[in-house]
Write a structure and sequence with these properties.
Length: 324
């Protein structure tokens, strides 16, 4: 860290954080990005649906973003933030950010873009194939497994919806009921109408040959060949830094089912704590990379606007003081 106090400290250097850093650095603000180096999409081979950067490897996209932000003066350092606290005083908001290795830095404003953690169902072998053949988002990975045999692992009420969705990319889809609820008669009719097979029994493991996923193993010992497996991960916001400031994550539901936790913000990313913004998956669980980048830009602009208001107030106060 080249200085002790910055206009803005950004916690998290993914698409949202770097986009915010780029906007703020271009606005001639002093910006520090502290990044733990744990991007959510690291297991994936490519980023999709990012206009102008389609199929870019995630690491390459981040390297480009770091270079762009640094080119306008943003400082980017590696580190894991342990906590943040409001500085004492009744005047302008200010914060102290402390890293796990004991470094500390002050900021006029904070932008937290720490993302989320995908909590996978407890099936042996899932984590090792995550982002490769074990998938969750059809818009992120559907095209890459189009026309292949796809399995959907049911762990909750949304599994039928998932199976029907993934049927758009392949006519060979199998729903494994696993630990999920029994489909209703209407759902069974929908699945049958779309040619989706339904298999009873718990999935106990994955079959892998030559470093390729080849199927699932049922408790009965039966192996069902598949080339991709769709799961419903639980999306848990990395909210520890925001919680240290008094913010609490709340549950997000989809179709009446809790799919994870997030930190609420207004449309610009402002939290309930004055001077603190959040952007990306920490506050919007289903956001894709391009959406996270857009949210970072929105938050960066809002932070700069807030600082401009504060700068003007301080300048007016100083002018009045000089005129006495």
């Amino acid at each position: 860290m080249k200085q002790q106090r910055y206009d803005v400290v950004i916690v998290g250097g993914g698409a949202a954080g770097l986009s915010g850093a780029l906007a703020l650095a271009r606005a001639r603000r002093s910006v520090l990005v502290i990044d733990a180096g744990e991007p959510r999409n690291a297991p994936a081979s490519h980023v999709h649906n990012y206009l102008g950067r389609e199929s870019t490897p995630p690491g390459e996209l981040l390297a480009i973003g770091r270079g762009e932000a640094a080119g306008y003066g943003a400082e980017i350092v590696e580190g894991r933030v342990a906590s943040a606290e409001r500085l004492p005083g009744d005047g302008e908001p200010g914060f102290r950010v402390v890293t796990e290795d004991g470094r500390s830095v002050e900021a006029r404003r904070l932008l937290v873009t720490t993302g989320l953690v995908d909590e996978l169902p407890p099936v042996p072998g899932l984590a090792a194939r995550w982002g490769r053949e074990v998938l969750h988002c059809p818009y992120c990975h559907g095209h890459e497994v189009a026309d292949r045999p796809i399995g959907v692992l049911a762990t909750g009420p949304l599994a039928v919806h998932q199976a029907l969705m993934w049927r758009q990319w392949s006519d060979d889809v199998t729903l494994f009921l696993h630990t999920g609820p029994e489909p209703t008669e209407e759902e069974y009719e929908q699945l049958a109408a779309r040619g989706i097979a339904v298999v009873d029994g718990e999935v106990t493991g994955l079959e892998v040959a030559d470093d390729r996923f080849t199927g699932v193993t049922l408790a009965s010992g039966r192996v069902v060949p598949r080339e991709a497996l769709v799961v419903q991960a639980r999306f848990t916001a990395r909210s520890a830094v925001l919680e240290s400031l008094g913010l609490e994550p709340v549950a997000q539901e989809m179709g009446g089912t809790v799919i994870g936790s997030y930190i609420p913000t207004d449309p610009t990313g402002a939290t309930e704590v004055p001077g603190v913004w959040a952007a990306g998956n920490v506050t919007r669980l289903t956001e894709q990379v391009i959406g996270a980048a857009a949210a970072g830009l929105m938050a960066g602009g809002a932070v700069n606007g807030d600082l401009t208001t504060e700068d003007t107030r301080l300048a007016v106060a100083a002018r009045r003081e000089r005129g006495r």
